[in-house]
Write a structure and sequence with these properties.
The chain is an alpha/beta fold. About 35% of the residues are buried. The N terminus and C terminus are likely disordered. The chain contains 9 helices and 10 strands. The protein starts with 10 loop residues before the first strand and ends in a 13-residue tail after the last helix. The protein has 2 domains: about 110 residues, 3-Layer(aba) Sandwich (Cobalt-precorrin-4 Transmethylase, domain 1), CATH 3.40.1010; about 120 residues, Methyltransferase, Cobalt-precorrin-4 Transmethylase, Domain 2 (2-Layer Sandwich).
C-alpha cells in the first residue's frame, strides 16, 4: 500500500506564514497548524508569536540551517510512523531560501506525502509592486557575501531578459547595488523593504541612483531587490556591452 493511501501514513505540510503582517495567514494554514502532531520552526521564539496570536498550542521544535541534518532522521521516522508534521520558517514559504529542501527531498525519496499550504512570499510580493515586467522573472535569492563571487554571479545573469529578484541583507545592500550597477549598468531597479510591515518602503530608481542612495546609508529590515532584465536595445548594441536602458522613476 502506498504512502498516499495508507491510513497510518504521515504527511509533511509546508505551511506559508506571514512575511510581516500577522493577518496575512490563510484559514487553511491556521487549521493545519492546529491539527499537526508537531510543528518545526526555523526560530521557535518568532514562531511562538504567531502561534500565540492564533491560539495554536502544539509541540514545537527548532529546525534551522545548522541543525537540519541532525534533525532529519527523527523527523522522517515520525512521518513514517504516521505523524502530521508542519514546517514553518521565520517568514514566508518554507524551502525558498530557507530550511526545508533537504527534508522535502528525503521525504519524497521515502514515499512520504509532501503537501504545500500556500502563503506569502517576499519574492512574489516584491515582484508585484516593483513596477518591472512580471511575465518572466528569475529568483536568485542571496548572492555571495564576497564582491568577486557576487560580480561573477551577476555577470552570468547579464543576458537574462526577465526581471531579476534577489534577497539581500541590510548591511550588504550598498555593496550589492554598487556591484549590480557596475556589472549590469543603469538598469531600472527597485529596493523593497519591510514588505507588509508598518514601515513598508519601495524605492524605484535606476541602479546607479539606488547605489548612490544606499551606498553609505544605514538600512534596517527585510529586503528584496528587483532589477530589470536585458532589453532588445542592449542586445543590439555592438558587443552587447550592457549599455543603459531607459530610466524610469
Amino acid at each position: 500500500m502506498s504512502a498516499d493511501s495508507s491510513p497510518k501514513a504521515g504527511a509533511l505540510y509546508l505551511v506559508g506564514t506571514p512575511i510581516g503582517n500577522l493577518e496575512d495567514i490563510t484559514h487553511r494554514a491556521v487549521r493545519t497548524l492546529k491539527e499537526a502532531d508537531r510543528i518545526l520552526a526555523e526560530d521557535t521564539r518568532r514562531a511562538r508569536v504567531l502561534l500565540d496570536r492564533y491560539e495554536i498550542s502544539r509541540p514545537l521544535s527548532s529546525f534551522f540551517e545548522h541543525n537540519e541534518v541532525r534533525r532529519l532522521e527523527p523527523v522522517l521516522r515520525a512521518l513514517e510512523g504516521g505523524e502530521k508534521v508542519a514546517l514553518i520558517t521565520d517568514a514566508g514559504s518554507p524551502g525558498v531560501s530557507d530550511p526545508g529542501y533537504r527534508l522535502v527531498r528525503e521525504a519524497v525519496a521515502r514515499g512520504i506525502r509532501v503537501i504545500s499550504i500556500p502563503g506569502p512570499s517576499a519574492a512574489i510580493t516584491a515582484l508585484q509592486v516593483c513596477g518591472l515586467p512580471t511575465d518572466q522573472f528569475l529568483f536568485r535569492g542571496f548572492l555571495s557575501r564576497k564582491s568577486g563571487a557576487r560580480r561573477r554571479a551577476l555577470e552570468e545573469l547579464r543576458d537574462y531578459e526577465g526581471t531579476l529578484v534577489f534577497y539581500e541583507s541590510p548591511h550588504r545592500l550598498g555593496a550589492f547595488l554598487k556591484d549590480a550597477f557596475e556589472v549590469l549598468g543603469p538598469r531600472p531597479g527597485a529596493v523593497c523593504r519591510e514588505l507588509t510591515k508598518l514601515y513598508e518602503e519601495v524605492v524605484r530608481e535606476p541602479l546607479d541612483r539606488l547605489a548612490a542612495r544606499y551606498g553609505e546609508a544605514k538600512v534596517l529590515g527585510e529586503l528584496v531587490v528587483c532589477v530589470g532584465g536585458l532589453t532588445r536595445g542592449e542586445r543590439a548594441q555592438a558587443g552587447e556591452s550592457g549599455g543603459a536602458q531607459e530610466d524610469f522613476e
